[in-house]
Specification:
The protein is mainly alpha-helical and 348 residues long. The protein folds into two domains: 68 residues, no CATH class; 204 residues, Cytochrome P450 (Cytochrome p450, Orthogonal Bundle), CATH 1.10.630. A two-stranded antiparallel sheet has the order 1-2. A hairpin with a 2-residue loop joins β1 and β2. The longest helix has 32 residues. One of its GO terms (molecular function) is heme binding.
Amino acid sequence: MEFSSSLVLVLVLAVLMLVWWKRNASGLSLPPGPLALPLIGNLPIMDKRAPFKSFMQWSKTYGPVMTVYLGPQRMVVLVGYGTVKEALVDQAEHFTGRAPIPFLIKVLRGYGLAISNGDRWRQLRRFTLTTLRDFGMGRKRMEQWIQEESRHLLESFEETKSTPVDPAFFLSRAVSNVICSLVFGQRFDYEDKNFLHLLQIISRLVRFISSPQGQLYNVFPKLMQLLPGRHHAMFKEIEVIKAFVLKKIKEHEQNLDFGDQKDFIDCFLIKLKQEKHNPDTEFHKDNMLGTVLNLFIAGTETTSTTLRYALMLLIKHPHIQAIFIWCIIIIFIWCIVVFYCYYLAHNY
């Protein structure tokens, strides 16, 4: 019995050493980094809830560019504004590729804008940017939608009677409605139960992806798929969002007017029909579903998170808040002066 146990232990150690040797014999000239263990990498010494804290700490020893292993997955980590800017802005063409994210691949099956690469990414990105700009992104029309939604947001804050509240859900509803206006051609009432349910799912999804269990799924996807856990519940909840988007796409198909394109889905459906005889086209139902999900989920969460962070900074730094208020007052006064001068010029 003792001999058998020893033999199993030796075999396990031999396999681990083989994996370690193959990984280090790849011939790549990699940046320095913390010592990693076979199979589990740097996970034991990493802050699971805030990995960036570990990256910041390690960068003091190994520099702003370092090699880190999340389990068996090798990563090159960039730390600091200057380093990130040099790579992603100054040398953007060399860093356009996206690493596979198992959780998103499982959800989207590789389709859509967010996780695609190569020609698919270029085609979808070009079409998406052009279409959103045509519908007012970064222009006056978009500004009007934002102003209208801002009024609804202020009304919902006023209903709290100045009691302390968490602004997360308030901002998510407002931001998501602007996204919905662009993508679905409609906004939803803040009390719409289906709309609120979808936002709750998005919130839980983002929290899960950034949780230790969500990170483990991306490191060991095959193993996690066999184990029980929250990831199975999340996949079921994502199907609810998919069903909602598919229902909206079907409604758009039934009411499609080639001469009156109301939103992003209308434009994608028309493009799909125009390229239906092209065997190499990336404009098909799978990419449409994936791209709409990208815009709806990622657009809602990223923008509302940015607004929450801005509010937090204003609360934390009252002197910046005062400057911010004075800037608004000055702009308001300037607008009144310009309007009055315009009025005088056209009446005398």
